[in-house]
Write a structure and sequence with these properties.
Order of helices and strands: HHHHHHEEEHEEEEEEEEEEEEH
CATH architecture of the largest domain: Sandwich
Distance between the termini: 106 Å
Strand order of the largest sheet: 6-5-9-2-1-11-14-13
Number of helices: 8
Number of domains: 3
Largest sheet: 8 strands, mixed
Oligomer: single chain
Keywords: Membrane, Transmembrane, Transmembrane helix
CATH topology of the largest domain: Immunoglobulin-like
Helix content: 25-40%
């Protein structure tokens, strides 16, 4: 059964043939009348008969032939189109691929997220030569990077250790005061930042997935101190693009929370530079201080200063998830300002970070004395 468009074409063609044929017959009759009538002598100077014959011939022969040849004409047109497409297909394919390669935004306009995921997996499969590995690798990458709540750039963490004078100098309850300063650039996912200290591991793990949580600190209860104690965790200052922000503190059963608003005029789609400083208590006999990266981070640097802390040496354990080797810089304990620094250039995945592990001078002396 022919389509409505084909039926319309046939109807228009039949109507045109009828009109042309009728006009041709009318002109030939007019020319015949003029040849036998004195009143129509002036028609002899005009090619009325020729025009009428041409129209009549066109209507009955040319248009009729086109009408009966329509099916064959469509076949020939389809064959020409297929030939052109087959000859130009490589060029069209290369043009489309190059267009998507150099203008990826064009690909997002024509492909869904599921299609984009399949394209990426297929490309990885070709490059890796292993389809299963490509699928697993991309799934992990998508969960860690695409699903990340934020992305940090130019992250710098500086830690200064000092003995805590309000507690015992050694043994259980001996503490270091760690003054930690962070600075990085990111696009806020929330107009509010929260800094929390808890003594419950489950609550701490929940905070790690909270998009409004900027810093989390876990402090197990010891010697009458817990996460609600002001000495354990104190947010000193917060600045956004160099402007100090107001800090609000609240105490809950499971710990304490400091809340900072980024300001009503802050746009959540623009990158800002945030810097904040907090003080925490770290147990000396714990021998370790962690700095974790919960977000994808580009260009990370961390340093620890431990002068006058009775520390013999500090080792750095990095668990940065990246292909490059970190760069280390160290000033030994004999230096007036002993410190250690680790720097990583490039992107690191979430759940990475560094750990500073120290050995106390008095512990080494005790072990040495026992050996003697």
């Amino acid at each position: 059964m022919s389509s409505p468009l084909e039926r319309l074409y046939q109807t228009k063609l039949a109507l045109l043939a009828t009109v042309v044929t009728v006009v041709g017959v009318a002109l030939m009759l007019l020319a015949h009348w003029a040849s036998g009538s004195p009143a129509g002598a002036w028609f002899d100077a005009l090619p009325v008969m020729e025009v009428g014959s041409a129209l009549f011939t066109t209507g009955l022969i040319a248009i009729f032939f086109e009408y009966i040849d329509q099916a064959d004409a469509e076949v020939r047109a389809n064959q020409r189109l297929r030939k052109v497409l087959s000859e130009e297909a490589p060029a069209i394919r290369d043009a489309v691929v190059d267009g998507f390669a150099f203008a990826p935004e064009a690909l997002t306009n024509v492909a869904s997220e599921e299609t984009l995921d399949r394209i990426v997996e297929n490309c990885l499969s070709i490059r890796l030569g292993d389809k299963e590995l490509a699928a697993d690798a991309y799934q992990d990458l998508r969960e860690q990077i695409i699903g990340a709540r934020q992305r940090w750039e130019d992250a710098h963490a500086a830690v200064a250790l000092a003995p805590w004078t309000k507690g015992p100098a050694e043994g259980r309850g001996a503490m270091f005061v760690a003054t930690v300063r962070w600075e990085y650039r990111f696009v806020p996912s929330s107009p509010v930042l929260r800094f929390s200290c808890v003594s419950d591991l489950d609550a701490y793990r929940e905070l790690l997935t909270d998009p409004t949580s900027a810093a989390e600190w876990y402090f197990p209860p010891v010697e009458g101190l817990d996460a609600t104690s002001p000495e354990v965790f104190e947010l000193v200052e917060v600045a956004v693009n160099g402007k100090p922000q107001k800090i609000r503190r609240s105490v809950r059963k499971e710990g304490q929370v400091f809340t900072v608003s980024l300001g009503g005029d802050m746009k959540t789609d623009e990158a800002v530079t945030v810097s904040y400083t907090y003080r925490v208590l770290v147990q000396q006999h714990g021998h370790v201080l962690h700095l974790d990266l919960a977000q994808p981070t580009k260009d990370f640097r961390a340093e620890l200063w431990y002068g006058d802390c009775g520390i013999r040496r500090v080792n750095v354990i990095d668990y940065l998830s990246g292909p490059r080797q970190p760069r280390y810089t160290e000033l030994g304990a004999s230096d007036p300002s002993p410190s250690v620094e680790v720097a990583y250039e490039g992107w690191t995945f979430p759940k990475g970070g560094v750990a500073f592990v120290w050995a106390l001078e008095r512990e080494i002396q005790t072990v040495t004395g026992r050996q003697k």
